[in-house]
Recover the amino acids of this structure.
């Protein structure tokens, strides 16, 4: 309850800065949180998060990522955090066609080395990325994040999938986060933090859309599933209020 209240009392940028710092200082860092902060929000929000991080922790987000993340994950995270995407709808469809073909070839030969995808995720504006990934699915009949599963379950692949999902449809990603957290019911120490963090971070952004996607994906009611989670009564009351339960 204390953590949830503290997070909620901060403005959104400070809230995400605190969550990023908790991740980077933790024993088993859940680096997906940083990818979510970058890829599921606007470029302007990322800049304010970075400013808040410096003010709160006397360090830069990039510096702490470099100190904490392993080499390949560090490269992805630094690329994402260091970017400032143009946030208007500017798309080159011919370029999207070329880029999707290059990515598919790399996937098929398993020689991607992740460098191409990391570069693309770090430098393209969100609209260009969405159309490139849509073109990928149209040409090759499978979403790119499904193809990423062929690489196995290593941590870097997981981060790449989160990045792609958050860019394509953040509401679906957070619906999946909520569902996974509620189903595990305390099987892992950070389940409550993951669930409350996802809800708090999206409460003022797109929770109504997350609720809709949750219903479509799992044929269940998000409010009901969260209400059954093993929160204490006071924490549950806060979380349900942030959800806008019954709205």
């Amino acid at each position: 309850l204390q953590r949830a209240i503290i997070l909620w009392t901060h403005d959104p940028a400070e809230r995400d800065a605190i969550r990023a710092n908790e991740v980077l200082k933790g024993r088993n860092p859940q680096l997906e949180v940083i990818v979510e902060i970058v890829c599921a929000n606007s470029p302007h929000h990322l800049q304010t998060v970075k400013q808040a991080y410096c003010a709160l922790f006397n360090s830069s987000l990039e510096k702490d990522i470099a100190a904490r993340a392993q080499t390949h994950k560090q490269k992805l995270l630094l690329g994402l955090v260091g970017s400032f995407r143009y946030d208007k709808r500017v798309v080159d469809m011919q370029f999207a066609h070329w880029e999707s073909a290059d990515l598919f070839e790399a996937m098929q030969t398993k020689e991607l080395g992740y460098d191409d995808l990391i570069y693309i995720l770090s430098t393209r504006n969100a609209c260009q990325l969405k159309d490139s990934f849509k073109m990928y699915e149209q040409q090759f009949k499978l979403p790119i994040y499904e193809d990423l599963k062929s690489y196995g379950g290593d941590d870097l692949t997981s981060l790449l999938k989160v990045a792609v999902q958050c860019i394509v449809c953040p509401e679906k990603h957070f619906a999946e986060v909520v569902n996974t957290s509620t189903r595990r019911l305390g099987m892992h120490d950070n389940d409550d933090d993951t669930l409350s963090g996802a809800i708090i971070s999206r409460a003022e952004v797109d929770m109504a859309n997350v609720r809709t996607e949750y219903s479509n994906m799992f044929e269940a009611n998000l409010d009901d599933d969260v209400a059954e989670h093993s929160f204490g009564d006071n924490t549950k009351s806060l979380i349900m209020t942030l959800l806008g339960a019954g709205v």
